[in-house]
Structures are given as structure tokens and as C-alpha cells.
Please model this.
Amino acid sequence: MSNISAMLIVLILGKRGKEMPTSVRLLGAK
Model:
């Protein structure tokens, strides 16, 4: 389940590109 959410978050943030590393950091923290 978390895998799907993570993919969606990465895709959404990926569109910005600037917050991409931030999303990775948030996922790592979780």
C-alpha cells in the first residue's frame, strides 16, 4: 500500500523536480 502512495508522491513531486529530493528524504524518514 505504502508503495503505491510513495509512487504517487514521487510522481507528483517529480513534476516539480525541485522538491524531488525532499520527497525522497520524507520517504526515508518514514
